[in-house]
Fold these 3 entries.
Entry 1:
Amino acid sequence: MKTEICISLASDNNYADYALVTIFSSAINLDSSYRLKVYILDGGIKSDKKQMMLKILERFDMDVVFLDMTSETLFDDLPILMHWSKAMYYRVLLFKMLGDDISKVIYLDCDLMVTESLHKLYNYNLTNLSAAVIADSDQASNNRLNLPLDNIYFNSGVMLINLSYWRNEYNIDYIRSFINDYDGYLESPDQDLLNILLANKVKYLDAKWNMQVGMYRSRVFWKKLYTAKGIFHFTTNVKPWAVDDPHPQAKYYRFLAKNIGIELQEQIGLISGVKKIKRFIFHYLPFWVYSKLKGFNF
């Protein structure tokens, strides 16, 4: 009997195709002794799109559950910050939305690609910890949020969440108090909120489980990011489904997307091509190389 791994993603209709690529990449790389149970936090995915997703994923031994978030009342009296919608709360309240029989879940953003079996992430021991996370490539937010000096600001795009711990330690009123206390300070509301709530209550994992674009500038990570297996997180505004994304893994991402029938732009114009080269120099070369080229107007 296969061991079940629970994962969760949040998507509306616009991001459903990209959520599908994330799920597909997770499935094709999963060790054969495991199976996935996927909880999609559905922010308005159309019925025909859901059927398309289920049709493509039926080749795998997995269960896919769509949780309708558009009618979820848990969010009704929670404040909305700036231009962010109530979707910002989806991952924060997973401990309420998933059944008590589920002790932990891997949360994944939709703008990433999995190239390693997720059982290696899922099996980390989280005793007395709220989550396992990966450090963010930009640590400036640690000072902005006045977090403890020994704290490391993490990226919330990949999280192994200990739901049992959350159910014992947190409730909606407790979360609301944090939101109100930090009203006006949360620039990335969901990620900032999670860093405040979970300060010094998380386990930090190897960067391979959330390889962010900002890491390519580091001499320490550069070679590893080109060869490692894990989770690639496309954290710039230009995503791999755009033909002008210069990310080193964008070509493979587009291969997977087209393999499951997702239509992507194929031709790139001259101006877009030049921008692609500039983006590569800016984001994907080690800093010591970029610094020699900084005379370019990026």
Note: The mean pLDDT is 85.
Entry 2:
Amino acid sequence: MSRGRRLLRCEAGTAAIEFAFIGLLLFTVTIGLVEAGRAFFLMNELSHAADRAARAVMLNFEIEGDDLTTLVQDDDFLTGLTPASVLVDSPMPSTADMFRNVRLSYPFTPIIAGFTLGGATLSTDRQVAR
């Protein structure tokens, strides 16, 4: 048998080539799932902070926005979030309004380099009755 025919029939190394194709897909999906899980975790923490902010508004409906921001950012329960990056928006309603909205937002940046989402922002709202 000639050397060329043996080379064409040789299957040595095909497993490595197959793993290169499948492995790339597997690792990409795994990293995407880790980032999605982290986004859900941060959203849960942000939701917990919004609940605490809504409770503070229930206890004192006239609380100023700056005081509410300080209360949220000084919270020890903000695990995983950078407190200074948590934005609190809770405008004081007019006297006729019976509700006050509390909105928290947090910029999400993936840990894995190269997986940018174009500036995704996590946000949650709460509505508190007077």
Note: Residues 13-129 form one domain.
Entry 3:
Amino acid sequence: MKKYIITSVFIFSCCISAGQELSNKLPFGFYLGIRTEYLSLGKAFDGESFFYTDEASMFVPQIEPGIAFGTQFGLTFKQGSWDMGYYFSSNRFSHSIGSSGTLHIHNIKLLGLTFYLNKPGRIRPYIVTDASMPWFRITDGATGVGSYSGQTGKSYFSGVVLGAGAGIELGIAKKISFRAEAMPEWFILSNVKGITKEYWDVKKFSCLKLAASAGLFMGLSH
């Protein structure tokens, strides 16, 4: 957990330096900030089933709700913004075979769009969309089969998240604002990996992800 926090702080510092330089030259603004998120994944992660490949079996964990932390940055326009970021969370997991522990869900926000619903002011409601790429791994989550029998190793899960929600932005200083938002999203698992380095495609595995977040953001003049 500590190394992920240090990484986020480093990214945040780099964004401040780069953003101040860019915002003075481009015809749009730049913002950056820190954000926390409460997230919960649906029942597809049931803590009972397995994925099977030619190389390994990987258990599907039951994942408890968790708190994510990270950085968010993007481009600002008069009526909205283009949002990007990186977040990670710590979640407890368990499975009926007796395995349990903590996993870290990493998430790269690739394309978030915010659309304000009113003119510039101290309070601005908005709608927001999200397209992200999450992944996580479980130590000893994979058991070898066939020629790999007797081996255990990490299991990897990666996917795509698509969602839309709403929020409100409150200006608390000239260039500093507070945002709070809620977003239902669809988590689509696309690949799994275990024992070897080969990724295997996953079909028809998806679930609802519920997220509520809050953050502080700083705008940079241009």
Note: The CA atoms of residues 189 and 205 lie 6 Å apart.
